[in-house]
From TrEMBL:
PROSITE patterns: TAT
UniProt xrefs under SUPFAM superfamilies: Periplasmic binding protein-like II (SSF53850)
Protein name: Extracellular solute-binding protein
Region entry Disordered, spans: 36-55
Gene3D superfamilies: Periplasmic binding protein-like II (3.40.190.10)
Amino acid sequence: MPNSQASASTSPPSRRTFLASTAVAAAAVAGGVPLLTGCSTEEGSGKGGTTSGKELKNLLPTYVASKVADPDIPSVNGSSPGYTKAPPAAELVASVKGKPGHGGSYTMFEPLWGTPPPKNNAYYKAVNDALGATVKLQPQDGNTYGEKLGAVLASGDIADIVVIPLWEMGGRIHGAVSAKFADLGPYLSGDKVKKYPNLAAIPTAAWQMSVFGGKLRGLPMPSRPLGSVIPYYREDIFTKEGYHVPKSPAEFLSLAKEITRPKSKVWACDDMWWSAQRFFGCPGEKPYYWIEKNGKLVHKVETENYLEALEWCRKLFARGYVHPDAVAGKANDALTRFTSGQTLLYNDGEAKWYGATFEQAGPNPDFRIQGMDWFGPDGGDPVIYLDPPAQIWSFLNKNLAKDQIEEILALANFIAAPFGTKEQRLIDYGVEGVHHDMKKGVPVKNATGVRDVQDTYRFIASPQASVAYPDFPRMVEDYCGWMRRMGEFARKPLFYGMQIQEPNRYASLYTPFEDLAKDVTRGRKSIKDAQRAISDWRSGGGDRLRDWYAGLLDENGGGA
């Protein structure tokens, strides 16, 4: 599990931000997923060509679980396993014999949320030496990655390894995957993957979403089940002030009133729109934004839940409980407002749990971040929809020769080593004495490690991830406990695990709703304006998109 301080950087609270934050803290969803996937290529593809049933099963790699280290906190309700202790260096297991590479050199185009390390640093040299090959990293600003990615794919000057996140799959990028990148099925499908044991240990659910255009093309970074949005609160301050964690939207509003003291520069929260949607049981984002009601597909924005979430969030803003900088749209400093105590409630992706804890350990040792349990609209049980089982993939240039593809897959097998291995310690912490030091039996990055050992190589391939932060065992217990509790209420959304490309003519239909939500919650537009926008969405293509999804659902026997 990457131990990245880059994950603590702040960014706007858009869906892309939450997904990115989650991605750099990648972990796996284990088992229990239907064998089906869908991907349309162009507008004229009818119901959108799908790969399902036996055909898909033949494409997927055989799953062989890793047995390197038993977790201290086993998985419950689909939660990720947790490790609170670090094995001594002498007890680390080598999951790969010798150097997997044969002297090859490959370029890699990837996103990075944080400051890029210096080129040719000691960490890169150490990893490349252990790989027996050279991976020349080309990190790009993750916040503008889609623009650069589109230009690169259009130019034809494509790196050997290209990383593409799910949220950048809009427009023609999804279709470009089939045209530009290699079919990995001949190397990984079925028992062929057993040549690469660490890749074989990646859950089937993640591989399922790696099928594009009817071929296994992606090397996945598995996701945790519920980490894309977490409502955080300052447990240290709550304890000190005697605040009670709310158990309903109404209690949240009452608590927000109690907390907010503008003269003391303290406000209850930042923009809580993403949490509001989960409080009110809204489904997720594309393509998970559908529910089935009375035999008909209903889009998220058409539900009463969506309008109730908007109205509740509008009250937070109207009553002055939201920090003024958040009201003004200055979202980049949301984490700073939270860690400085200007806000006590804040929502973001899972990466911030460790990132904020690490960041504050020195200057504020009493700091403790905690995840608030989800609740329903009336304070009852919540309705929570699982996140996609994979949200980032690396792809190999189709012009690579067979021996080059096999060498990169061997490198990926090294990089996907699980917790408790020598390979994992190197990838996540660098070299002892150079990038990290052992303190009380725990590897702790020094300043050089914080700068250089970032989430870079893990984008090639990641293991069935765990919550493995032995430097903060209490945080591991907190996070795993939250996942275990919330997993009890988790359900699969429609189209779960399906790799879907909507027809191009519908690609921008949903886009205006993110700005609309900002306008309504801040009082610049009304609920009636939202209702008009929903009506316009239906007549402007929403009803036709509904029919398209209904056809896709029928093709796959009712979906998840």
